[in-house]
Amino acid sequence: MTFLARFRRRLPTDPALPLIRELIADAAANGCTVHLVASATRDWASATFVGAQHRILLTAIASPALTAWLAALPSAQLAPGRDLLGDLTVDRVSPIGNECQIELSALTLVEA
Question: Left if phi > 0, otherwise alpha if psi is -120 to 50, otherwise beta: which for 106?
Answer without folding.
Answer: beta
